[in-house]
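Quick note —
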Amino acid sequence: LYSVDISRSANQVYNVLKEAINKVTQYIFWESKREFFQKTFELDTTNTSDVGINIYRLVAHEFSQTGKVDTSAKKTIFGQIYHQLGDNYPDFFKTEMDNKSFDVKFIGEGAVDGGGVFRETIAQLCEELQSHVLPLFIKTPNNKNNVGNYREKWTINPAATSHLHLKFFEFLGGLMGQAIRSRNYLELSLPNLFWKLLKGQEPNSQDLEEVDRLQMKHLDDLVAMDQKGIDNFDWVSITEEKFVAILSDGSEKEIKQGGREIHLSFSNRKEYAELVIKTRIHEAQLQINHIRKGFLRVVPECILEMVNHEELERMVCGVVEIDIDILKKNTTVSGIPESLETYFWEVLQGFSQEDRQKYIRFIWGRSRLPLSQEEWTQSHTLEYLYTDTPNEAYPVGHTCFFQLDLPEYTSPKILEEKLRYAINNCVSIDADNQDPNDSGSNDDDDDDDDDE
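Predicted structure written out below.
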């Protein structure tokens, strides 16, 4: 890759070397791929992040409490951004590494966007995508039924097929592209099946099982009927199914022409199983195509071809697990007594992964760490916070600076109590600069601090 003439477009380079790269891509070191990708991005970076987006978070929050679905996406944060950027989103999403794609103003709030407000906006947008307020994603059957593996995953809603919804999916693809370019990751929990389809790789029955274990168990049982001593004579009393599949949203779809009139039988059960698997794997292919379309408006196609589905997911979503040793390695300490620093790492080490993610979001506006050591362009900072009554005060997070201001607590127990309160109750960013003795705060930041 180092000998490639990168002055040509990425897709031109890839077209020339396509066959050779496809054969050896699994053997190319990640760092070589990463450097190649970064150089290709530098060729067509267009964003200067000078566009301003107004976000009415109160409107989005109040709508989320109604239990309704924002089918036109006019109330949600996702929709507010979509309608303001329009179809010109690639101009803003082709951003430089570690830069925000646009400047965010929270209407009615005091925060100034030094980077943390943008990251918090992206985090909240992802929460909306994985909730009832938007129609684009639904819980996987494993998630809904609490069975099988990967019960936390969401999947594309097969029913979201309107023209507007497909435009939303295309926009989401663009957001995924900007996540790769800028490293402002999308905190999405999607199954392997999704990432394989986005890459253009054919998923298998194991991928479907990670989405719908009960469906695969039923199909496995049907195929293995003969091994249980059941033959064509016994079949009538077992099932009256037709050649129809139940999709992730509960809707029915014929798996072959006239399927509602074709009875499942002992002799055609294997064909039935194969067709159900194929139908379920591709139940949202239309939406995938539109996501891919938006993705490729922001990122060259060679990116998809040169990574596997696991690498693609990490490039879009970051690493879910928070490794305390890696965080500690990339931490700068300023004015913190040694005993207090010891308390802090002791408490953080005892946090669950969920609480560690909450902590990172509290001080950085996102919950994922960089993919590699080379991508740590900003240090995690622990700063001493002076107060007359430290055991009564709360820590302060600065999402712009990836910084925690820490009072001098006299025990790890008190530190844990105050920190847990802060990460669970003070996520919303505002720059009212309340006294840390009153409650925990999360700033991004006032005009004096905002020098990103």
